[in-house]
């Protein structure tokens, strides 16, 4: 999906989530969550992990329990299993920090018992 | 070929026969056109340029002047009528087809002579749809629908669907038109649409075929084709039907109709079953893996009783609805942890047993990792060795086993259950302790699944978990529905969130993974559900639906009660991931991975597409809060007996 399409189709819908970046932790504040959100789409992370890092059959959830930037970098440079590799020239360490900031900014989901369709109420 | 049959195929004799029978109806018999006279003399018919001006006879005919030479112009009961009688004797309810001239007599006989009942004609816009309909129908109805397929090109269109049904071991009964007698073919198109051996196109992935040359031959081969298709392991069968045979009169003494043989599926060797029972009963951690196993309620009940008797875990691969989705022994989502701890693993009609007991990594050097611990007994009951072909590799990688019982899995289940009961010590504490442990783990897994479903609940594009939960919220009080599309591409949320307790609650997957299967199969399954007083639920991939969108017209035309959700991720998402993997592997970034994989720019408006074919539809829906009300409106249509479609702009998986 081209960047322009991603911007229209996906990113615009996630703006409310990005607003929560103010709640980031101190190290994450140094990174750019908005830029991270753009990279998360451009670099195709959302294809397996979902646009808000919710995960699915193709890839595990990356939010709300988001790994550290160092942890992400260590893994994607030399991944195991189905994860494709991302080299420094494609996703820099700075990019990873921004992606981590975006994922950390995603609001925590409701508990299933607070969602009638999942609680069975 | 018998002399009598050979003679019947020779033009002059055939024409005489034709005329003699028709004489009673029209009172005129003589045939002596110049071309026929040439043929009788062994000469080629005179060439007639396609664009030549009409000759005197043609001009007279076009002007409405009766022909100078008296030819038979009507026929009484035709061979195709007799063929319809054969189909009626088989209790076939439907024939799905896209019209084609090579079976025009059969088509006409079904709707007029047969009064369009048993079989009733289901109109389709592509042979791939028609045959996929038969695939989906058979999996729900438990018996074949008939297909008529046009010669050569129609069969090529149908071939992917036949392959899917073959790979899924589903019964199909297909009649393919053909023009055997070269002297009877019209110029140009009929030559291009005739074949010496039509069935060769699909013989590598069908169970049996024949090309009968007399009505007696037809009825026996039709009975054999039906019998073979419906005897486990099931598969597609074909009859190539000569146009002439269908269009000629039956004659005074039609051959008696051959009845279909009712067969008993292949059961298991009792001694081997006893050995399996002893292994399972003596195991510390037995695991049952169910593949293409269950097709009846009794089959599911037996598997449940077997698991509960053993107190063991069941992994349901989703190729059939084998085991209740919320059963406390359903450990499908824990298979990766479970398999390595098992000491006895029993595969029940598992097609890819190698894949079931190995991990796989799509790396530069692709590798498999064994999941079984040393000493684990791997045993199998399956019918795959009874029906296998060498060319197409749907039989999967070879897996050595400690013992294999070659039998129909569902037929063998009651035998195994009885043997296990006999071998099981009464009041085994190990069994109940094991079952309790599994139940606790399943409860935790279900809780985790709900938490995972809540993650991204309000996201837009809408999460697959959200739209599956929204559907479940509207159908959970009603048992009379069936999911008629696979669930892999929605992260399995249907199985994780819906309480599926009957075999008809899910159709399973498509066998051969040929894209374009879903629309046709869903409509065929919807017919079977409608006849059983249920409605169908389809969740289409946008790419799959666009292979065969014409199925929507069939749904509207035949008023099928089917709720259709388009999982619209605006891409061939599986292929996006493949291109992404290659680009990453080559360290090039994925900026261009969308080229050739996205279905955007422009976005397809699926609601308008459906509406253009007479289907009630809404969308695109990208706000999750609007999905529930839209589903209510759609289901109101479906419960009235009409199709309805919602275009849901969704997360990729």
Commentary on this structure:
- By secondary structure, chain A is mostly helical.
- Chain A has helices spanning 3-18, 26-29, 33-42, 45-49, 69-77, 93-105, 116-119.
- Chain B is α/β, with parallel strands linked by helices.
- In chain B, helix 12 packs across helix 16.
- Mean pLDDT of chain B is 92; it is low at 1-42 and 45-50.
- Classes of the chains: A mainly alpha (121), B alpha/beta (653).
- At the A-B interface, helix 1, helix 4 and helix 7 of A face helix 17, helix 18 and helix 23 of B.
Radius of gyration of chain B: 28 Å
Structural class of chain A: mainly alpha
Low-pLDDT windows of residues of chain B? 1-42, 45-50
Distance between the termini of chain B: 57 Å
Largest interface, counted by CB within 8 Å of the partner chain's CB: A-B, 45 and 49 residues
| Biggest sheet details of chain B | 6 strands, parallel
Helix fraction of chain A, binned, reads 40-55%
| Rg result of chain A | 15 Å
Kindly state the mean pLDDT of chain A as a whole number?
Answer: 82
β-strand amount of chain A: under 5%
Please tally the β strands of chain A and state the result. 0
- Unreliable sequence segments of chain A: 1-28
